[in-house]
Amino acid sequence: MAHPAPLAEEPRSLLDTDSFGMALYLDAGKPKLRKTARTRLRLLAATADILNAKDDVAALRVTEVVRRAGIAHGTFYRYYDGVPAIVEEAIAVFAEFQRDRLGAVRAGAAGSRERVRATTLAYIRIFRANAGMMRCLMGLGADSAHYRARFHELNRDWNRRVAQAIAANRSDASAESLLPTAYALGGMIDEFLAQLYLRRDPALAALAEDPDAVADLLSELWCRGAYGTLQAS
Fold first, then answer.
1. Which of 27, 74, 147, 174 is the most exposed place for a label (fewest CB within 10 A)?
2. Are 124 and 214 in contact (CB under 8 A)?
3. How far apart are CA 178 and CA 192, in angstroms?
4. 180 and 223 co-located in one domain
């Protein structure tokens, strides 16, 4: 089987859209892109789109992927051994997409309420636009437990940054001692968004259509949990 170059070496439109699949389709349409890179991006984009429309990764089929990507069935196997291989890569690239999008938020100072809200809103928009991918990444699907390693890796790196940002605005604790706090606050947000967009709790249905209201709520809770006040000092 052919082994294309890592996607990290290829351009991706990380800031053009909240939809991971659309970002990959946009990059696949860029001029002068190698045919192998274009095909691979289209296969990954098709996989993301299908996963976002399904509740279970086990229902994904190669025939669906190639049909949506507009690529011959046999071509798929030049890139991937089967569905598990392409899903694994899609999850890995999606984790990079999420990390890059959140890392690009620059509103306010690190740890400030402005930065917390802007980052939270960006995360909500990504979560909402890519619910199926988030289900896989968080290991919530029936056959997706082995994707949790990506989620744990993403959480570990992000929560270390969060702990450092909290510590920079507090004089009573170190970043190391605040790491559990960062995990607890992040877990609160993940669980709430899972209830909102994955489990679709009817009690939250109205809020699910208002990402700004969700960002306001979660940012307030986050700042109170991190600083005991709405506004970080």
1. 74
2. yes
3. 21
4. yes
